[in-house]
Amino acid sequence: MFSGSMVALLTPFGPSGEVDYIGLKKLVDHHIAAGTTAIIAVGTTGESTTLTVDEHIKVVLKTLEYVDGRIPVIAGTGANATHEAVTITKLFSGTGIAACLSVTPYYNKPTQEGLYQHYKAIAEATDIPQILYNVPGRTAVDLLPETVARLAKLDNIIGIKDATGDITRVKKTRELCGADFIQLSGDDATAVDFVAEGGHGVISVTANIAAAAMATMFNLALEGNIDAAQEINQRLMPLHTKLFVEANPIPVKWAAYQMGLIEHDNLRLPLTVLSESQQPIVKQALVDANVL
């Protein structure tokens, strides 16, 4: 089962915008040493939308190589065209990827039936375990618990990353899908509460910056020591909030650069480096969270 603090890993770029694979290996080793329980490669935080398909595949496979079996690697494989999501997913067959994380189709705003058929098509095209990803704030479509329940009946749809911030969905989803259906928070600020309600862990942006603290916090939460977990959570709350002063992954990449975790803070257009007016805010958050 996937649980604990799982990182939505950023993708480091070199000075000319090329993928920095040496930097990627350093990040992988950093997270394993810090206690991160799984790495999600080339999700939103990994800038999936600006990588070429070849880069996308290579970054995932290099992450898998660098991890070398120490923790699971989950591949981001979502797309807003079903055929594209199916194609990308099938490219990882037989690679050793532990699961795929597939975001709801963005921009085209499908119905609940459309969402069901989208994920059903992906699931039927592969034997790789599939994790649904619901983030209405970015996609403009909400995967409702009733639709999740329909999808949970398919053999290789094993869980969901829920970034709605609505912790009331944890109980409802468990009632509809059963206790074995994996529920992972995609909202750092409410993730401890999510686990307290019965969730299994988090796929985290904050973990890029505070990997060890996030790992400790979710170990405590999963052991039932919610009060101790919340103490850490309150310290990290500036990161949970200020890492989103501009669109993810703009702030987290700048923060990682400030901490020396990556060599450059550059992104690919249309994303741009964190604006000067927001830099003091993010830097103060790093100080307040006691990570800088």
UniProtKB/TrEMBL annotation:
The keyword Protease is assigned to this record: no
Residue(s) at site: Part of a proton relay during catalysis: 44, 107
Gene: dapA
Pathway the protein takes part in: Amino-acid biosynthesis; L-lysine biosynthesis via DAP pathway; (S)-tetrahydrodipicolinate from L-aspartate: step 3/4
Keyword Lyase: yes
HAMAP family hit by this protein: DapA
Localization terms from the record: Cytoplasm
Residues annotated as the enzyme's active site: 133, 161
PANTHER family the UniProt entry points to: 4-HYDROXY-2-OXOGLUTARATE ALDOLASE, MITOCHONDRIAL (PTHR12128:SF66), DIHYDRODIPICOLINATE SYNTHASE (PTHR12128)
Predominant place of localization: cytoplasm
Keywords: Amino-acid biosynthesis, Cytoplasm, Diaminopimelate biosynthesis, Lyase, Lysine biosynthesis, Schiff base
Function: Catalyzes the condensation of (S)-aspartate-beta-semialdehyde [(S)-ASA] and pyruvate to 4-hydroxy-tetrahydrodipicolinate (HTPA).
Reaction catalysed by this enzyme: L-aspartate 4-semialdehyde + pyruvate = (2S,4S)-4-hydroxy-2,3,4,5-tetrahydrodipicolinate + H2O + H(+)
InterPro entries the UniProt entry points to: Aldolase_TIM, DapA, DapA-like, Schiff_base-form_aldolases_AS, Schiff_base-form_aldolases_CS
Gene Ontology BP annotations: diaminopimelate biosynthetic process; lysine biosynthetic process via diaminopimelate
Subunit description: Homotetramer; dimer of dimers.
GO cellular component: cytosol
Organism: Photobacterium carnosum
Pfam (any one): DHDPS
Record-stated family: Belongs to the DapA family.
Binding site for pyruvate: 45, 203
Name of this protein: 4-hydroxy-tetrahydrodipicolinate synthase
UniProt GO MF annotations: 4-hydroxy-tetrahydrodipicolinate synthase activity
PROSITE patterns: DHDPS_1, DHDPS_2
EC annotation from Swiss-Prot or TrEMBL: 4.3.3.7
